Amino acid sequence: MKIPTPQQRELWAKAVQTPGQLSEEERHLVLGRADRATQVANVFRDIPNREMDLPFEDLMANIRAEAAVQTPYEAAIRDAANRRSDFFAQQQAQKVEETMRKYAEDLKRPCKWVRKLIDPNKPDSEQTLYWSFVVLRDISTITDDTAWERFLQLANKWIDSGLNWVHGGITIRQTKQMIFLNNFFNEKNPEEMRKAFQQHVIPEADLNPRILSNTFLFVTSEVMKAVGDMSNPWIWAYESNFTPSETTQDAVGTDRYNGRLKVNLRSLFTWFYAVRSEKLYTMQQFWEKAQRDPEQAWQVSTHSGVYHYPLVLLEKGTVWPITAYELENEP
User: Fold this and answer.
1) Which of the 8 DSSP states describes residue 269?
2) Which top CATH class is 113-308?
3) Pairing of the two strands 297-298 and 260-264
4) What is the value of pTM for the model shown?
5) Nearest to 134 by CA among 268, 298, 301, 295
6) Which residues pair with 178 in a beta bridge?
7) Cα separation of 52 and 59, whole Å?
8) At what angle do helices 24-31 and 56-69 cross, to 10 degrees?
9) Which of 127, 209, 307, 324 could form a disulfide with 303 if both were Cys (CB 3.0 to 4.6 A apart)?
10) CATH 3.40.50.800 spans which residues of the chain?
């Protein structure tokens, strides 16, 4: 805090008691202004002649002195500047209020990718816009009906727990489907699986675009064990049009992407379905991100019912906002 000099205090008192006896130079000193020549030379600059960090009593004395020596013209200019400042402040406040109101409204409604799965003309109990993943089974999953039913119950529990965090998730949860092919397949022969998928599913997916045609799921005995383990439930997701020639070495290690990745069940029918339906990224990009996860399973968490944690880290060290929303259909 700066203490004014005795001369300044004496000048302020003189300005209040006998303002008409002040010289022009003294008047400028009271107002904290430079002389007119300097003002003109520095018209576009702030002149740091004002000391605002004064003790309260001295600050008030300074304000009273300024008010006493200001001409009507100078007072009018100051008032106009204050009104202009207030006007801009009001405009800015209105803009912030409108932005916050829109943000609040967006937080109350589902994302656009969710709204595409909801018929606005029907109540929640009568929704018929079914959306699906196609699921294939490995020969190792041939077991008794009780074990298989137990797996389906647990899988649906984890899937629904992810949907419950998304605005509109309870509505679209009723119309989600897992379409199982009747045949059993060998995990060691992915080309046979892709061929069966193309033959039996692509025509149906053409009729219903909400059935993903670029991705299918695969259940193995390892998947059944992971779902029953109750700690990190995941399932295999396969890229339907993948060919071995597309395999490339991962930048972070020696492993290679082979057309499939583990997907956490909580993210399966939320952000994984969303981003695969909009075809924004390759499965290999998801696989590369999954390799940084302790379980090597791709997953993202829902934030505020509308946003998600980063979907893809294209480069090591990349930092994304916690409320990233990279999907094409922004809320």
Assistant:
1) I
2) alpha beta
3) parallel
4) 0.67
5) 268
6) 133
7) 7
8) 140
9) 307
10) 113-308
